[in-house]
Amino acid sequence: DQQVKQNSPSLSVQEGRISILNCDYTNSMFDYFLWYKKYPAEGPTFLISISSIKDKNEDGRFTVFLNKSAKHLSLHIVPSQPGDSAVYFCAAANAGGTSYGKLTFGQGTILTVHP
Amino acid sequence: EPEVTQTPSHQVTQMGQEVILRCVPISNHLYFYWYRQILGQKVEFLVSFYNNEISEKSEIFDDQFSVERPDGSNFTLKIRSTKLEDSAMYFCASYAYMNTEAFFGQGTRLTVV
Predict the structure, then answer these.
(1) Which of B42, B48, B107 sits opposite A107 (nearest CB)?
(2) CA torsion, ordered B8, B13, B15, B20, to nearest 10 deg
(3) Beta bridge partners of A10
(4) Do B43 and A103 touch (CB under 8 A)?
(5) pLDDT, tens digit, for every residue of A59-85?
(6) Which candidate, B25, B104, B24, B57, places its Cα nearest to that of A36?
(7) Which residue of B has its CA nearest to A37?
(8) Do B21 and B110 contact (CB within 8 A), yes or no?
(9) Measured between alpha carbons, how far is B86 from A59 in angstroms, rounded to an integer?
(10) Which residues make beta-bridge pairs with B33?
(11) What pLDDT, in 10s, does the model give residues B28-75?
């Protein structure tokens, strides 16, 4: 099942710079997309989401961009901080029917922010 | 802040034994899910539960798996006869009605030996 893909297993960034995490999907029926952050030995923590009818959503240092024609989304973190170092998961979901809320995850990208 | 809690944090069991993983979702949430993550792999959907019944289940969720919400607060995942390949982190998640943000518990690490 490769409906959601994160092709970069890892990303290393200097503190204060921008981190850009990418995600591609194949299922055009997804209604919304989410980014989760995960530390070792913890569950995923919700960061930000975007509806399929929008192309941008911003929350503080985090911005998610959606390009529906390319079936691509990205998460921008500006400025990056060492505390942002974690695994970032892209996920996609449907808003209706029996699949309501079921998340399909990408493989994750390990972000390391160096001081 | 309300949170989803899971117990135990780590469970070691012998192959063939039954295990029950427990979750207490956030109290006003209506949709409940189990996911698992085998080491080095993706987080995978197992099952969703709404209105006291299963809404959807994945191919992984075979006859060895069952879920229950016995008392209106706990949400449990039972594996009847564990296999080595069931070793994974198991995450419980819940949603409020018409919300798009799933809240996850901290996970239970299941090790089958």
Answers:
(1) B42
(2) -30
(3) A110
(4) yes
(5) 999 999 999 999 999 999 999 999 999
(6) B104
(7) B104
(8) yes
(9) 37
(10) B48, B93
(11) 888 999 999 999 889 999 999 988 899 999 999 999 999 999 887 899
